[in-house]
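Lab meeting minutes (informal)
Scribe: AK
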Amino acid sequence: MKLTNREFEKEFRELNNFYSMRNPRKIHEFIKKNEGLIKLLNETEPHLLKKFPNGEFELQAHDDITGEGYHKIYLNIFVDDETFNNGIMEGIHEVHGQILPLKRELDLIMELVLMPGVRGY
C-alpha cells in the first residue's frame, strides 16, 4: 500500500520516537525511495527491544562507494561493553532471522543492515 506524502511524512517523523538518525535528510531520501522500510523498521522495533532492552538504535544512510548515492540503511545497535563482548552478534542474528520474512516480502533484503556498536563510541 503506497502512502500519501502526508502519511509518509508522519510515519517518518514517528521513527524518531525510537531511532536516532545520524543523517536524517539522507535517510529521508532513501526511505522515500523504499517506502517499505518504514514498515520494516516499525516491525523491527519490538524484536530489538526484546533482545537489547538497554540498547540505543541509530539509523545511518550508507554511502555507495561508486558515488551513485545511498543504497542501504545501517541500523546501528549500540550496547554496553559487556553485552557487546558477550553475544551481540547472536542477538543481531536472532533479530535478523525474525525480520527476514518481512524483508523478503517487501523486497528489501539488502536495504537494511543491522550493525553492532558500543555505546559511547
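Next up, CB showed the second protein from the same session:
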Amino acid sequence: LMPRPLVALLALLVLPLAVVASGEPLHIDNFQRTLDADELWVVEIMSPMCGTCQTFAPAWQAFATKHGGEVKLGQVNIDTDDGMELAQDLELLDEGVPSVWAFDKASGEGRVLWKDETGDVPTAEALAEMVFGAFPGAARLANGFLGKTAEADAGEL
C-alpha cells in the first residue's frame, strides 16, 4: 500500500498527461499543413494544467474516438513555447482555454466553435452537434473526411 502523499503526487503528475491524448499536437512549426489541408480541422486549444481542460478531456477524447475519421483533430498545448507562440500568432487566446476551433475555409481562417465561459463543458454528443451543426452542407472527400468550404470570389454576390 502506497502512502497517501505519494499517491497524491503521482496523480498530480499523471493527470495532466492524460489530458493530452486526442488529436495531433499542433504548434508554430507544423500548423501550416492544417491551413493547407483540404480536410476540415477541429482543434482544441488547451493547457494540461487547466482544471477546466482536465474536465473537458474525457468529452474531447470521446469525440475524437467517435469522429476522428470524419474530421482531422489537433491540439494546441499552450504550455509549450511553440504552442503558445501559435496561439498568440492566431489570436486564439482571446477566447480562452479550453476552446475548440474549426479551420474550415480554404483560406485557413479559423472560427471558434466552443469556448469555456462558465466552467461547464459539453458532452461528446453536444460537441459533435456543435461541430457538425456548423457545417451542414460540408462535402465528404474521397478519404472520408469532411472537406473545407471553398471561398467565394470577391467579385461574386
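CB comment: The longest strand covers residues 41-46.
No objections, moving on.
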